[in-house]
């Protein structure tokens, strides 16, 4: 390539890098005008066309280039094209062709190797790696081959055949044995790979021996001690494990993992009949404790050993004394640290239930704070907070009456205020205040009150108080998370959104924390807020999926073989995320619901969405739960009143909520496909049954496909609901504040989704066949909309006596109804459009003949006229239901919030000081303050919802407005 | 009371208790993945006895000749696990790895306004080697802090520079 062209193409590259694809296309076309056959130029043109969404044109260019791509830079640009087009196998093909032409070319072979990595073709990887090694005998290439063999054994098609996998692993070992023998090991990654191959084969003795060999010590000096520990465990070398962990603990007496290994070994030896180790361990831990009385390690180890002795039917009391006394001692030493509660939580479960309330009151005593005294310093403050949290864990709050809970709540708010004034003065805006946890705990208690008294007013008070907390500590994310949760409980999407914004959730957090906000958005009427979050979320997933291939390539490049499988699993976990699939489906549904153009425009937009009605691309069996379910703190009792473990219960709720959401996803995805299939069918020219039979293998197979797929889809749709009926899913418990909110599935089941869309699907199908059954179905649909109308009319607005979740449910139901009607309007408008264009007086001669034929041929079919009148009748009822929804928008009026923040605080006898934090320090820039007025936010939310809903309803009315 | 282990991809689904903190940045995936792929031994996570992520450190080894050194890219501890000496534990880990890799020194960058962090690094034996002008967003300066390792016998790596440098002049 001459330098002029090179310079010009540079401009194109830069434009593409900056995402300025239009400019890239213009520039590259300029170049191609002068040198039309410049291959890199053509490849760049193809790339910019893809980025501009013009894939078809781009594909033509690529097809041409494939024949003889010539040079390396063209190949590289083509690789980008294939990656964007998701045609990864083609990359293998072009590089394989190129490598054949220039055998032994290192660069091409490397690219070819990476191309195979992207499609997980381990066998070809092995071949290419060995070719590379032959061309350039460098160690990395050799080890790429070894790793490729390992992957065949562990993840390839051979992995299912144990015998084959075994052979492959032993081959991999021999390959490295050879290198070791020739003394050619160079890098620690190579040693690591060898160790893991031995472990895969369960040759732990060999691994241990190798670990102590000269090669290993020389080349892998930083070998983590955990490797040895794991091998000892596999080999059940308990004595060795015990003395090793003993050594490690002497050096580092605060390592919990070493204590666990130590005690594991100790009790395994006991099991083997060696009881003498008990005294040994007791003395060891006691000695450590004596010389390290300031670290938590040995204290916790004592409690752990006490617990394990009891589990092994040994008597710990003689050695350690009473279990509860150990807990109290731990608290009195470490209660001034936040982590004390989490430390003790692990051990509370093993304290008999009847002793727990006793423990709670003893701990409170130990803090030295009574109803008449206040914490005098930060240590005492933290201790007090810890004792309160543990007391909740011990179940002390469950038994309290509403009045007592109310008293506790007031006390906590005052404690917060006092300690904030006393110890929170010099806080930076990035700090979490020392007294903040009072108000977090208070929020949990207020929720208990709200549930017991079934009143949302109490929760609004909590919002006020948390809001006050966030004014004092604007970066307390625990407070923000609780606000987010409460806003969603109360059905205030806008409040929730403001809090969410201040949390600055991004990248992988969109997946792990999406369930806290994004997943609830379909139940709010705030499409304007949800769309950007859906877009951001989907962008993260698609980009990560593409990028994650490059991490695999990177692992080979750096020889970090230990990470390869982890990266592969991670990639799968991301792409199988339930949240990802759910958001994809919701975003598409939302887009369809929001269509507000003419029929023609809508159809064009719909086609651009490329929905495949025939296949559900979601792999339901593989879906993963990527939620971070521990992000919100909780101190709810370890056991409930029936003495069931709350931990087990929470785990069950989490699993159940995931299962229910998978069912929800099945329903939403089928709904989307059913709507899409109906629209496609309407737009497919009809062939009468006779014609089909005559032609036998009809050339127009897509028609039959559409026909069949509609039937299958309706069956699938109905079968989901039948299954749900059998399985009888329960709404998850809302006993505690941070319990997962009930799945949207339950709202869907309360609305006539199943019936309406089953009827609609059948109606469209029969209409398309002009069958007489269309009439019956049409009547049923008319009735369904009448029913929907009366359903909307019977919805009751929220009032003072409504239960806690009422407003949220009401809103979700209302929005569900509007959604049903919007999707029906979308489909029916096409039905009408199609039929009215086929009317005999308006169609061309040819079509006229055809439609006449239809009528004459088969008297069992209905006429176009009948069709139009049927559709018009249905639309009339739909219109009336929509009108009724529009007139009922007032029903969404929220509960009244009487007080503003200051009035509320005054009722708690708190007088907030004027905050002077507004222009505080440089770090303020990293804080997004939450600025929500609880007094008005519910009304704002209502105004915005009504605005969006009413606009949506108006659009739908316009869509089905026919004479 | 800590367990230390290598950071794995799945930890990213659970590190929110650390990352929601106002001073901790959540980066794009590629940032973490690059470190995991290139310097897996330098990316460690501290886990509490009950299994929560308490904090993590990520770093790398780079530089030529006498500039071969360990670098702390990010060090974060959850606000719920502060004042337990966790940062020191994680820093010691990184220094140990760097010793084994025969590095000459360890260095790190910190906002000049982050006095708490600077004090802590001083306590751990780090000195301000130089000031980097307008290194951070908002044009805030950074301190480049260093601590010499055993291999740097004459402690040549920790003789402070007198003049500040611009970000583009950092080697």
UniProtKB/TrEMBL annotation, chain A:
A Pfam match: NatB_MDM20
Leader peptide range in chain numbering: none
Gene source species: Chironomus riparius
Key words, A-Z: TPR repeat
Similarity comment: Belongs to the MDM20/NAA25 family.
InterPro entries in the record: NAA25_NatB_aux_su, TPR-like_helical_dom_sf
Keyword Signal: no
Domain of life of the native organism: Eukaryota
Protein name in UniProt: N-terminal acetyltransferase B complex subunit MDM20 homolog
GO cellular component, one term: NatB complex
TrEMBL record, chain B:
Catalytic activity: N-terminal L-methionyl-L-asparaginyl-[protein] + acetyl-CoA = N-terminal N(alpha)-acetyl-L-methionyl-L-asparaginyl-[protein] + CoA + H(+); N-terminal L-methionyl-L-glutaminyl-[protein] + acetyl-CoA = N-terminal N(alpha)-acetyl-L-methionyl-L-glutaminyl-[protein] + CoA + H(+); N-terminal L-methionyl-L-aspartyl-[protein] + acetyl-CoA = N-terminal N(alpha)-acetyl-L-methionyl-L-aspartyl-[protein] + CoA + H(+); N-terminal L-methionyl-L-glutamyl-[protein] + acetyl-CoA = N-terminal N(alpha)-acetyl-L-methionyl-L-glutamyl-[protein] + CoA + H(+)
InterPro entries the record matches: Acyl_CoA_acyltransferase, GNAT_dom, NatB_acetyltransferase_subunit
EC number: 2.3.1.254
Protein's UniProt keywords contain Acetylation: no
Compartment(s): Cytoplasm; Nucleus
Keywords: Acyltransferase, Cytoplasm, Nucleus, Transferase
GO molecular function, one term: protein N-terminal-methionine acetyltransferase activity
GO cellular component, one term: nucleus
One Pfam family per UniProt: Acetyltransf_1
Ranges for domain N-acetyltransferase: 2-150
Protein task: Catalytic subunit of the NatB complex which catalyzes acetylation of the N-terminal methionine residues of peptides beginning with Met-Asp, Met-Glu, Met-Asn and Met-Gln. Proteins with cell cycle functions are overrepresented in the pool of NatB substrates. Required for maintaining the structure and function of actomyosin fibers and for proper cellular migration.
Family: Belongs to the acetyltransferase family. ARD1 subfamily.
PANTHER family, per the entry: N-ALPHA-ACETYLTRANSFERASE 20
Subunit (UniProt): Component of the N-terminal acetyltransferase B (NatB) complex which is composed of NAA20 and NAA25.
Protein name according to UniProt: N-alpha-acetyltransferase 20
């Amino acid at each position: 390539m001459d330098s002029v062209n090179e310079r010009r193409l540079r401009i194109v590259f830069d434009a593409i890098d900056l995402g300025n694809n239009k400019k890239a296309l213009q520039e590259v076309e300029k170049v191609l005008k002068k040198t039309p056959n410049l291959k890199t130029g053509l490849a760049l043109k193809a790339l910019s066309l893809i980025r501009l969404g013009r894939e078809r044109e781009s594909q033509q260019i690529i097809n041409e280039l494939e024949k003889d791509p010539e040079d390396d830079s063209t190949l590289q640009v083509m690789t980008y094209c294939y990656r964007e087009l998701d045609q990864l196998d083609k990359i293998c093909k072009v590089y394989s062709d190129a490598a054949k032409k220039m055998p032994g070319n290192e660069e091409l072979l490397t690219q070819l190797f990476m191309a195979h990595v992207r499609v997980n073709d381990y066998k070809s990887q092995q071949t290419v790696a060995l070719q590379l090694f032959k061309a350039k005998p460098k160690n990395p290439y050799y080890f790429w081959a070894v790793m490729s063999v390992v992957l065949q054994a562990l993840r390839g098609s051979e992995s299912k055949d144990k015998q084959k996998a075994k052979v492959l692993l032993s081959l991999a070992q021999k390959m490295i044995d050879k290198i070791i023998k020739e003394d050619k090991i160079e890098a620690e990654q190579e040693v690591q790979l060898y160790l893991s191959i031995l472990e895969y084969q369960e040759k732990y003795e060999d691994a241990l021996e190798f670990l102590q060999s000269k090669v290993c010590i020389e080349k892998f000096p930083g070998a983590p001690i955990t490797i040895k520990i794991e091998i000892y465990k596999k080999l059940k070398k308990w004595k060795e494990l015990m003395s090793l962990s003993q050594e490690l603990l002497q050096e580092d007496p605060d390592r919990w993992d070493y204590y666990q290994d130590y005690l594991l070994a100790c009790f395994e030896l006991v099991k083997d009949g060696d009881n003498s180790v008990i005294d040994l361990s007791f003395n060891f831990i006691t000695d450590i404790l004596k010389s390290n009385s300031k670290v938590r390690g040995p204290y916790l180890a004592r409690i752990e050993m006490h617990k394990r002795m009891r589990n092994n039917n040994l008597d710990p009391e003689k050695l350690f004394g009473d279990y509860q006394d150990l807990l109290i001692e731990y608290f009195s030493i470490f209660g001034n640290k936040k982590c004390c509660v989490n430390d003790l939580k692990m051990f509370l479960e093993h304290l008999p239930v009847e002793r727990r309330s006793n423990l709670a009151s003893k701990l409170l005593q130990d803090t030295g704070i009574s109803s008449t005294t206040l914490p005098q310093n930060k240590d005492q403050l933290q201790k007090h907070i810890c004792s309160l949290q543990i007391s909740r864990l011990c179940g002390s709050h469950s038994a309290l009456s509403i009045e007592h809970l109310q008293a506790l709540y007031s006390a906590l708010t005052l404690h917060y205020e006092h300690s904030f004034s006393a110890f929170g003065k010099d806080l930076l805006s990035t700090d979490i205040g020392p007294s903040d946890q009072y108000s977090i705990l208070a929020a949990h208690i207020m929720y208990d009150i709200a549930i017991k008294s079934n009143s949302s007013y109490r929760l609004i008070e909590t919002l006020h108080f948390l809001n006050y907390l966030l004014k004092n500590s604007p970066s307390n994310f625990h407070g923000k998370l609780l606000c987010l949760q409460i806003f969603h409980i109360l059905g205030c999407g806008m409040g929730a959104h403001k809090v969410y914004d201040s949390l600055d959730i991004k990248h992988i957090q969109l997946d792990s924390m999406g369930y806290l906000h994004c997943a609830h958005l379909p139940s709010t009427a705030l499409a304007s807020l949800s769309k950007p979050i859906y877009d951001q979320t989907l962008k993260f997933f698609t980009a990560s999926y593409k990028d994650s291939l490059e991490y695999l390539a990177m692992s080979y490049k750096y020889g970090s073989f230990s990470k390869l499988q982890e990266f592969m699993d991670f990639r799968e976990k991301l792409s199988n995320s339930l949240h990802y699939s759910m958001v994809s489906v919701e975003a598409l549904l939302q887009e369809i619901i929001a269509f507000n153009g003419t029929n023609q425009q809508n159809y064009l937009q719909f086609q651009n969405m490329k929905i495949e009605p025939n296949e559900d691309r979601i792999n339901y069996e593989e879906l993963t739960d990527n939620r971070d379910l521990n992000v919100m703190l909780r101190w709810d009792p370890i056991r409930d009143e029936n003495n069931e473990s709350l931990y087990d219960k929470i785990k069950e709720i989490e699993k159940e909520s995931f299962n229910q959401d998978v069912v929800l996803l099945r329903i939403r995805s089928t709904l989307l496909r059913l709507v899409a299939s109906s629209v496609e069918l309407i737009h497919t020219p009809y062939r009468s049954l006779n014609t089909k039979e005559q032609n036998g293998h009809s050339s127009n197979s897509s028609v039959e496909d559409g026909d069949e797929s509609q039937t299958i889809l309706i069956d699938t749709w109905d079968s989901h609901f039948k299954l749900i009926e059998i399985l009888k899913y329960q709404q998850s418990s809302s006993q505690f504040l941070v319990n997962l909110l009930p799945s949207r599935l339950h709202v869907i089941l309360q609305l006539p989704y199943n019936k309406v869309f089953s009827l609609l699907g059948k109606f469209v199908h029969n209409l398309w066949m002009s069958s007489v059954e269309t009439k019956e179905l049409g009547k049923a649909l008319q009735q369904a909309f009448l029913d929907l109308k009366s359903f909307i009319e019977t919805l009751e607005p929220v009032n003072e006596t409504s239960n806690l979740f009422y407003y949220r449910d009401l809103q979700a139901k209302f929005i569900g109804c509007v959604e049903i009607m919007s999707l029906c309007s979308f489909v029916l408008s096409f039905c009408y459009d199609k039929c009215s264009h086929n009317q005999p007086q308006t169609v061309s001669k040819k079509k006229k003949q055809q439609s006449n034929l239809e009528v004459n041929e088969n008297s069992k079919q209905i006429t176009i006229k009948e069709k139009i009148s049927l559709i018009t009748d249905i639309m009339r009822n739909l219109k009336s239901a929509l009108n009724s929804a529009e007139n009922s928008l007032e029903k969404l009026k929220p509960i009244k919030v009487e007080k503003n923040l200051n009035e509320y605080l005054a009722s708690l006898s708190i007088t907030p000081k004027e905050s002077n934090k507004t222009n505080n320090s440089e770090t303020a820039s990293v804080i997004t303050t939450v600025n929500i007025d609880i007094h008005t936010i519910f009304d704002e939310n209502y105004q915005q919802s009504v605005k969006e809903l009413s606009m949506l309803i108006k659009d739908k009315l316009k869509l089905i407005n026919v004479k | 009371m800590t367990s230390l282990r290598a950071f794995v991809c799945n930890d990213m689904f659970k590190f929110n208790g650390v990352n929601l903190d106002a001073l901790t940045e959540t980066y794009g995936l590629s940032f973490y993945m690059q470190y995991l792929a290139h310097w897996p031994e330098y990316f460690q996570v501290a886990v509490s006895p009950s299994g929560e992520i308490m904090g993590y450190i990520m770093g790398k080894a780079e530089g030529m000749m006498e500039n071969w050194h360990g670098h702390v890219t990010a060090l974060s501890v959850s606000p719920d696990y502060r004042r337990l000496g966790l940062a020191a534990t994680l820093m010691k880990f990184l220094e140990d790895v760097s010793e084994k890799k025969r590095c000459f020194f360890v260095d790190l960058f910190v906002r000049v306004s982050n006095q708490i962090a600077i004090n802590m690094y001083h306590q751990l034996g780090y000195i301000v080697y130089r000031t980097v002008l307008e290194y951070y967003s908002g044009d805030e300066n950074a301190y480049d802090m260093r601590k010499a390792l055993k291999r740097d016998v004459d402690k040549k790596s920790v003789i402070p520079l007198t003049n500040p440098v611009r970000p583009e002049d950092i080697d």
